[in-house]
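Hey,

Quick one before I head out. I ran the complex with 6-sulfanyluridine-5'-phosphate overnight. Inputs first:
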Amino acid sequence: MNNRISFLKSLVDIECVKFGNFTLKSGQQSPIYIDLRNIVSYPELLTNLALLFKEEINLSAQRICGVPYAALPIATMISAHTGLPMLIKRKEAKGYGTKKMLEGAYKPGDKVVLVEDVITSGQSLIETIKVLEDEGLIIEQILVVLDREQGGIEKLTNQGYNVSSLFSVSSLIDLLISENKIDVDTYNEVKVFLNNNHSITPIQEQTKKYFPQTHQHPIAQKLLNIANTKKSNLIASVDLTSAQDIINFLSIVGEDICAAKLHVDIIKDFSQDFIKELKALSEKLQFLIIEDRKFADIGNTQLLQLSQGIYSIASWADMVTIHLIAGEASLKAIQDWDTAIKPALIPIIEMSSKGALTDNDYIEKCKQFLYNYADVIGAVCQNTTLKTGFLKFTPGINLSAKEDNKGQNYNSPSHAIENLQSDFLIIGRGLYLSDNPKKEIDNYLSEVRKMDFFSEIK
Ligand code: S5P
């Protein structure tokens, strides 16, 4: 029997493909279930698959890499059968040592074949492509076992990648009906499902949000690691005016946040002893510190504000906010500042307040240069989207209020994640004014976690 056909039939036999009524991760009902992970326990099948792929691989490829985890054994088997050296993409960076995302021997410019088990929207592939390209590797070819025909292949092809799949769901059910392995009703149900989902998936994909895993900047990577470990993307904006109140509040919520944002200029009894205590607490409870200084001056003044005065912000803040109103040269002055410790920069490009002057024109002008500076890890914004790899911080988050009476606008955490595509949620009064901050942060966290935001990307 043809190798391809026998392989497809085996997938049904080992229950990698099932028919019935299944609830997908998105909550959608599906008449077909596909999960190729089981294949790892069937070495003969894995070998057959590797041999099928061997016929497809471009001769110019120099490395092979599987999208973790399901495609790892597939890539390993292909590597063994073709002699192509393999690379392993980690799911998260190591918390120690080299912090590498990619293991194996390679050099920039090497051409890589990427292998995936099932392609739906292409999201897992996009994550892996980014890591490889950041290392200077060239994606020569993308090989997929099964295409769910939900827009993933088109999406990657439109981005210029050479993607092909061995099988599609349509070819699978065509074969199964011809072999009497499924009945006409099942066949028709899957067909209808495919037709309906082909067009809606790309739209769903735009709104489906996963929490980022990696970042080039070490402070941003640390922030992501903390957030991923705690499954919390919450930043407490601690706009309290007494040092002791700040410490007391953070002692309560510190373990549930990934960062605390301060306005040091409102603290009536600010001292370096307070900073020492705050730093010790941040180490103990694992959160980072953002000083919301909103620098907005000429480069020279900003450097003085960062490094001098009673606050000497640069000596303790992990991140600082900055307006870009003074123009690119002011930002460049900080980037060019050659100093041992420097906070990461979070420009504010769009404000949450009513009537803010940060209109689209302003935002676009900011975007024209902010991505060029390595100290910039993302931006504070509301509706606008940022380039992949830049973190979106959104203030104006509150579970119950829609606005205050001083111009602030609020959104719910789920709206910020789902519709604004925010990575980090900044919550001020919603938490620190609560009678029971511990209970209240649980309410925020459960709304975030309910959204499957921190689930493994698949
Ligand atoms: O556009 C913005 C940018 C910032 S940094 N809107 C904001 O509200 N902020 C800050 O976020 C603001 O200075 C305050 O510290 C926090 C929001 O606090 P809340 O009490 O309204 O949640």
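The first helix runs from residue 3 to 13.

Talk tomorrow,
K.
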